[in-house]
Amino acid sequence: MAIVDVSAKTVRHVELFRKISTARRLDVWPFVCLYLLWIGLVFPSLETADGLIVLAGIGMLHILTMLCTVWSVDFRCFAHYQKAKDLKTAEFCKVVPEKYSGSKEVVPLLHRKLAQVQDKKAGGAGNLFLSSQLGATDEEVRFDFRKQTFVYSPEEGVFEKVGYPSKETFGTYMKCTGHASEARAEVAKEKWGPNVFDFPQPTFGKLFKEQCMEPFFVFQVFCVGLWCLDEYWYYSVFTLFMLLLFESTVVKSRIRTLMELRQVAVDKQSLLVYRGGKWVRLSGIALLPGDIVSLGRTTAQGSEERTVPADMLLLAGTVIANEALLTGESTPQWKVPVTGRDPTERLAVKRDKTHVLFGGTKILQHTPDKQTAHLKTPDNGCVAIVLRTGFNTSQGKLMRTILFSTERVTANNWESGLFIMFLVVFALMAAGYVLMKGLEDPNRSRYKLLLNCSLIITSVIPPELPMELSIAVNTSLIALARKGIYCTEPFRIPFGGKVDVCCFDKTGTLTTDDMEFRGVVEVETKELITESKKLPEMAASALAACHSLVFVDNKLVGDPLEKAAIKGAQWCYTSDERAFPKGQPRKSVQILHRFHFASHLKRMSVIVSVDPGSASSQGFLVLVKGAPETIQSRLVTLPAGYVEAYKQFTRQGSRVLALAYKHLPDMPIGELRSIERDDAESGLHFSGFAVFACPLRRDSASTLLELKDSSHELVMITGDQALTAVHVASQVHIVSRPVLVLTLGDDGSFSWISPDEAVQLPFRIEEVEQVASTYDLCVAGEGLAWLARQEALDVVIPRVQVYARVSPDQKEMILTTLKGCGRVTLMCGDGTNDVGALKQAHVGVALLNVSPPPKSSSIRTLETSSSHSPTSTLTGVDGRSAHSSGGVMLNDGANRRRRSQSSSSRGGGLAAAIGPQANGVVQRSGRSLAGSPELGQVIGGSSSTDANGAVVPLTPAELQRQRLLKKQEQLKAMMDEMDQLPTVKLGDASMASPFTAKHASVQPTLTIIKQGRCTLVTTMQMFKILGLNCLAMAYVLSVMSLDGVKVGDIQAMISGLFTAAFFLFISHAKPLTTLSPERPHAKIFSWYVMLSLMGQFAVHLTFLVMAVRQAEKHMPEECIDPDSEFTPNLVNTVSYTVNMMIQCATFAVNYVGHPFNQSVVENKPFFYALIAAAGFFTVLTSDTVRSLNDSLKLVPLPEGMGHQLLLMSAADLVVTYTIERLARWAFPSRVPSLSARRTRGHQASSVEKED
């Protein structure tokens, strides 16, 4: 029984282990034996130096073995544990998660006895579901994994998540009276724990240790340690300091992020809880599942806003809750009690959300119900029962999603590691050759020989490589931040360049949140009635009264569609739930009872009383609205043309609701409110179709067209109706061919049907590819569920363009399946319904619904209260400040909206950062820069005004002062951009998304892909340049080592400076403004990269060999001691000079410009650096300035050799450039075949439209 299955979506199984004693561990006893063997046999038989070298080798192998137990969970289990036969003997378990659900982890297996409940009253009638949850067993085996507890079930033979009372019958909840005794509460606390988010704050030392344990960093420190043993130890110590400083900044950033996350906590405000038969006041963190609580909005002046501390089921009273924290939706939700529900029906939280208050949401308003409540609350609150606490609430699930990212993208990916190993092989071959030749000389120092070999090996991986790669990523981070796009996982940026499938939510992402009421359609005429006075009376009454709108603080809030309906019908709605027409001779209605909208029913209804009119008596009505297909089956008589009428408008992209009514006989109000919902909503009469339009965002179509033209597949994933989704998809270029929708037929089988039902094809899994080659496909949620049961997802999902009526879990499943098929995905959404999909996508983009930054032509005005104000706000013509958006908002132009601070803030501000002279300028000016209302006119101007307002020409000194102040402002703006990036709070979907865009537009997806391609190209060319330089350097060092030649300290410094400068400048290349259909190469191990690399290396190696052999002809035949100090000679001079020429050629040839980035000439810093380097090495080679060559320890070249080397370097540049271009032409980047086919289909469709 070494493996036990786990009944959970995220965990596959666990493997049982026992920990072995320290002496028996594989990283202990073998090395103890080796150390004893070295002491007893090896050290006495070898010289001291050789013996110490052997000891160092054993020590390094020991350290590497111990580190492997950190890097690999499997190796740690192999070295530290032994497999257990059964649960009783097991002490630990290795948790193996499902694909895309995290990495393996070893956790303790807990065996414990549960406390016995002596109180017999605890199992009374009021605690029926608690008794079933707590169970009769007094012993259990459990483990905790990622803030979830799993308990072994002896009956099922599997581990299961700890059960919560969230699936009981409504009758059970209504009878529950909470925990009848403290003993019962203690048992519940032992099972479920306290209601807290208990994750520890990692210390700097712990996180720094984790960073330093990364394989790449360990290798770097090892290399630096070896270099310290040679004469380069000063440089090595400095490099180590830079590495530690770099890792420290990373750790500080992680700590800052975790501290923000730790601010999210359960509301600790006290509330009334029914415990032991009486109401007691407890803190929110003391709540337990099964507790009965009294909830309400605090009305006391100065009191804090009430937040729901756990997931609860509302038993009595109504609540208006703001769920923006979880859903991202600003519309308040109306929560109603479970009274009236079938007592035998079981609760389903996803289905019955209207009865559930979710943890972390805010209570805006509450109305107690003292008549139906079986427990009376002393504070007039609403009665609710706690369902889930802690990390198992909806808020806790979101927290777990944020804490445990499914795939953390870092620089240490397997492909870069494999490429480094590829280079190490060449370095080892060169070092092995040097070692073999060195061992042939019995007089050569073994210590020095080992150091020379280490120089060759460490030359493969420059210690500054992580910083060089980070420069490229950080440059992109700053560029994105300037456009209001913020990234929490920076190393996901290169994935933006690999994206081939772009998925979009519809409502609120491609379309606006604002709904427009178009009118009502009567079936008989099929005409759209737009004039409010001509609307059918029953249809107008349904539009005005059948809704869930509510007044909060004297403001009407709710669904934008329902508000648009009242406005379009020209009715008024008051806080006493009365609706009446504006200036129309119609009867008003009074709402008596609501049956709220239920997603599984797809309808809602209200019972209203009709005021007596001039010619009719008072009566009662049921007004109903819902999905047309749902209302259809509940009508007494189905009007002719019913289906054709609503499909006519859904095909146009409109949202259509069916309106119906039913007369009720006169009866007491109490009886009216006790009518069963199913009875009230049956036997209806049709009154019309309400038609609404949801306009597209202005740039959705153009943005998606550019994505499609740049060889990206486009997919829409929405919860809206299929025909509506298909129409919107056609408007934004997602579909461009005839569309087929997977539809369930009357016979229970699925088939492909066109929106106009002219084409019908039976669904056969083997014909999906053929159908997809001719049609664009749409699949609804019920079709997805059926495909999952048929195990056909992998075949269908990669070929579908539109998904409709899908749930959040299905959105996540779509992204997971696409990833499993090898696609690189982008998901763009705006609500927490999209969180799972945003996390599963390689590039998740969460849109925060704020206005985009104004155009560069906007006028700016600087407003400050006084020069002594600590902060001031830069405001645009729209009157909104940067504070309102939570951070810096920048547009594509040079104009910006940014936070401005006085020079006294931040302990001296930018003036202090620039220097005392700047500070003096500010002080002598007599006023603070930030406090100057004339800033926009003074900076950059050539005149000023005196006290009387006259224009006075500025002196040269004043002009210089203004230039300095302008530089100060620019520097301060850069610091603001870097230091004041907004922290994403709970309530934004972006908390679980790598990218957050402060735009009400999908335009940021283009920006991210452009910047991703730029970063990907830069990273790829960095690896290519690194490979070529390292291969050439390994050969140079091996040749020089055999001839006893070393690199001079100044030579190494010059080489490093040029390399660092080149890497810096190529990382600052900017992407082009238009996306190209051509893709950048995404893999290091591709035919293009490897053939180009090996071809260029062969040319460079030929150049090196020819130059070195030419130099050897002029060398005196004398032996140079390899262990002697550095001595300049001809081979050193030629090798160093040629290697520097090769480095310059490598950067110039492998720089990738168009069609992704700026060209070499457009990237001015890099272009000038190349010219400077070429000129510098031309001067060195031609020996034009002898003193310069002497300072670099370069000997004079024989006559004519300098010109010969320059000609050879020119030939090397031309040949390698030709090889690079030929390889790029012969092996272009792969474009997905499906994407190419659809692009061609789109282009063909466009041509047909033009014809």
From TrEMBL:
It is found in: Endoplasmic reticulum membrane. The chain crosses the membrane at residues 28-46, 52-73, 418-436, 1020-1038, 1050-1067, 1087-1108. Its main location: endoplasmic reticulum. Pfam families: 2TM_P5A-ATPase, Cation_ATPase, E1-E2_ATPase. One of its GO terms (molecular function) is P-type ion transporter activity. The keyword ATP-binding applies. Residues 23-85 form the P5A-ATPase transmembrane helical hairpin domain. Residues 269-401 form the P-type ATPase A domain. One of its GO terms (biological process) is pollen germination. It is a multi-pass membrane protein. Keywords: ATP-binding, Endoplasmic reticulum, Magnesium, Membrane, Metal-binding, Nucleotide-binding, Translocase, Transmembrane, Transmembrane helix, Transport. One of its GO terms (cellular component) is endoplasmic reticulum membrane. Belongs to the cation transport ATPase (P-type) (TC 3.A.3) family. Type V subfamily. This is Cation-transporting ATPase. It comes from Chara braunii.
